Amino acid sequence: MYTSSNRAMAAEDGPGPNLVITVAGEAANGTVVIDLLPDVAPKHVAQITELARTGAYNNVVFHRVIDGFMAQTGDVKYGKWGEDLSMAGTGKSDLPNIPAEFSDLSFQRGVVGMARSTNPNSANSQFFIMFAPGEFLNGEYTVVGHVIAGMEVVDAIKKGSPDLNGAVDNPDRMVSVTVEQ
Length: 181
Fold this sequence. Notes:
The longest helix is centred in the N-terminal third of the chain and has 12 residues, at 42-53. The radius of gyration is 15 Å and the shape is globular. Helix content is 10%, strand content 25%. It has two helices and nine strands; from the N terminus they run ββαββββββαβ. A nine-stranded antiparallel β-sheet has the order 3-9-1-2-8-6-7-5-4. The protein has helices at residues 42-53, 151-156, and strands at 18-24, 30-36, 60-61, 64-66, 70-73, 111-114, 127-130, 143-149, 173-180. The chain is mostly beta strands.
């Protein structure tokens, strides 16, 4: 599936479960399918799939979107569409934080990584999808999957203000997030 640790991930569906995200909003509308990589980040994938299974990700906004870099979502505490989003990006789930599961996979376009604070072992529920390569993230953030369908939907996600670190006014959202085996 991978030809080299420094090459982009293959866009085909691997053996892992798929995260199926229905996106809606001002800019992006459609479905994004992410092939999760339990062989690379088993604890992170288990947490993501559990949060999706319980509906925690439903109606969570893309709160930080930086053109040419990435779209971040997954704040299940403060990122619910229709609620006060002033704290979006600072919350997490009620599940425990996950220890880092760094790999030699490179952050290329379509790669999905787990967001965290400055503590490498603080990932919880938030994740981001790369618009473009970001090799400076390699070995610093956990790769959990890659987009296998709907990258055009990801590209259309409403971008945030560069002056506000990508904060988005009236952001697009994940209407539903399910897991398919």
